[in-house]
Write the structure tokens for this entry.
Amino acid sequence: MTRNRHTRRGDGTSIARRYARIEAKRVVVSLGHMLVGIVLMSAVLVGAALGVSSLMTRSSSVSPITVCMAGVKSDPRLSAIMQAVAGSQEGVSLGTLRYIDTQDEARDMVASGECSASIWLPDGFYDDLVDGTNTPAVIYLPDSGAMGTRLFREVVDDFVSLLSASEAGTYSAIEQVRETRADVSDPEQMGGVFAMAYAKACFARLGIFSERTYSPVGTMGLHEYYLSVVVALLTFGIGLNFGFLFTGEDEEMERKLRVYGVSAWLDALIKTGVIGLALWAVAVVLLTPVLALLAHSGGIVLGASLPLVALRLLPGALMMGAFDTMMYTLTRRSEHAGLIFLLVGLVMVFAGGCLLPSTFLPAPVAAVGDVLPLAIERGYAADALTAGRMPVTDVLVVLAVGALMVCVAVVCDKARHHELPRLRTGRRGSRGRRPRAVAAAPGGMAPKDGEAAR
């Protein structure tokens, strides 16, 4: 009994290796027929991704605006401050200053469109600021404007908020100096020191604003984002071509697989591994020259070396292989399996942030799209390309999602297998003789002598 048990285990392992080798050969042979289509698809995807990212970069960039300043020429101290602000890096990025004379002129120039915004400072504004007198400035903004104007409006709102929050502290310090006169010969001079320190702190707010990242794709650039989209779409598109691994397995073939020890679990795992490795190999071969060229030209910044980035992409490819196995197992008996696969892919493309980032999608659509396999693969590919150190949680999530899809494929396969007519085991010949096994095994795996009896 022990010898027979070990023999069965050895035969099962041999059958599994033989079946995996047969499926791998089928994939390798089919890649030659799919090569032209895969190359064309990858070229179209890379070109489209670079074009969309460049278009979005240009459309989302903020061009400097013209801001008119009235009431500054009369006070040299305000003129010096505004010239310092206009010459700073933040001031140049936001807009250019144009000095005018009156408040009416400031209002009219905004109405006519000559200036995107106007600021009028009343006479004695600097002295009122030092003395603590509440003398408001007037800012004219159009009802609607370009992105630069809207950004300037946000900066002004932040500036006013900062002014309201901190002016009490500044004025209380000035009053403290005036009341105590501690080691200060001229309280007005001390007030000027506080006012200048406060003005510098307010203008430094622009520097804080410029250091923050305001992007619909997070901290990564648009080129890196859409390159991760290319990786996801490429693995998905290549996976469309592996339906031949499933469509040729009719009911008779499934019976043969079960007779020769290829269970539903083994079948799903072998197909997932073979498809995933094929997706990974093709993606690495096609994307490595593109990544090397973009990294050399400065178009993207890779988080690691090219070999390490290629190795990082393997778990994501295995997850997409599990997705292909699940989809083709679910649609194995359908005449429109490819069409169903394609429709599901289109839903994932639109809802998963592959065309537009999830920020631009309705909240319910974005919430559903973020948990779809294509969105998970896109996010994982983005981390694999740009992360200096790959988060272990990302790898575990991708592998867990792939394992879940393999389980769904196995459950579906077993449920369908129970519906198939059982193999006939009627007696033939003398009493107690069992029927012979099927005449041919899948892929030429012929049974050994006595194997059917076991």
User: Anything to note?
Assistant: Confidence is low (pLDDT under 50) at residues 1-10, 208-214, 420-454. The longest helix spans residues 2-60.
